[in-house]
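If you are new to this repository, start here. Below is one unmodified record pulled from the training split, so you can see the exact layout before writing a loader.
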Amino acid sequence: MTETGEPDWAMVRADYEAGEISVRAIAEKHSVTLDRINHRKIKEIWRPRRLWTSRGQRRVIINKLMHLLERQIALLEAKLDTNEAFDMADTKLIETITKTYEKLTELQDVHNKAETRKTARLDPELEAVREKLIRRVKALETE
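And here is the target side for that same chain:
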């Protein structure tokens, strides 16, 4: 809360967009109602919450897909061993699961790279040194 008794909307928005905790938890943390958060979100066009709220959840989803894929492959192998008719729907399902798994791992890699760049840029001391060096190089160029 600010001195005026209003919530710090910049912090509410940051918590909301980060997606690390539920909207209900954000409301409790900042002593606001869900309706006020929703109203502010629409009014100020807040960025949507992250698709996956935590690394742990991403890993769980990827692991579940991998186990599903392994199970489906085992079922197909069992069909082949018993000379049961091979169903194209089974093949299509494996193809879909595999593509989804590949896409999720690709998105995870992109997210990890973005997080690495983001944290590297957020160190204020390094940014200050960087800015100082840029100014010094420009001053040397003009001399």
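Two things worth knowing about this chain: The mean pLDDT is 80. DSSP finds six helices and no strands in the chain.
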